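REQUEST FORM: STRUCTURE PREDICTION
Request ID: SP-0412
Submitted by: Lab K.M.
Chain count: 1
Length (residues): 237
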Amino acid sequence: MVDYNEGLQELAELNVDAANDFKLHRPELFCRAFLNPAVKTDAITSNIAETFNGYIFQARTKHLLYMLEDIRGTLMQRLVVKRQAMMKATSILFPRIKAKLEAEKAKAAQCEVIPSSETLFNVNYNLDQLVVDLERRSCTCRKWDMLGIPCCHAVASIYFLGKEPELFVDKCYYRDTYLSVYVGSIPPIQGERHWPVVSMPIDPPPIKIGPGRPRKNRIKDPHENPKKIWFLDKNRD
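STATUS: Completed
RESULT:
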């Protein structure tokens, strides 16, 4: 909240109208200072929807049955590939989360820890003083609260007690949790040639094709930059 207020004040010094217009857009719905820590994210985006939209981009152009079959086959393979990749991991955390935690460990060396109790600490870092509560898994910077990954201040406090930061990462980032998400599978089905023959016609209703070329690109937000090129990450978890 301190960062938010300072940033808003700097914006008001540059342009009062811009600061007032910003507040009219209800920043409590998208600014990090107001996000619910229970969600375990530090940003509000539609990345998951956009990634899946790009994942089925080619399938959307097909007939309904073939579109669904294409999506089914792709997801069936994805579940197995993701599960096999995580089974090779040796850490108790996701590899990507492990890398983020290692970055916080590197910054923890610059922190000065002053204990108040076995779970409460004052941490001095870059001329700033913060409070770390290991029992509540909370820090003044709110990074640990929001992401579930110990920040550098928390890592320094954990090391002060001689414990491992990996044990203080939220359970949602554990390897076992990841594997439980991908434990299911989509059963294979036979091709159209092997389907049972029925006497009742099951042809789809006629498709009315309107004038012009069919739309393939998504409808963009009115405030989105029309010239910006988006690259979709098909390997995103």
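NOTES: Residues 114 and 192 are 69 Å apart (CA to CA).
Reviewed by: T.R.
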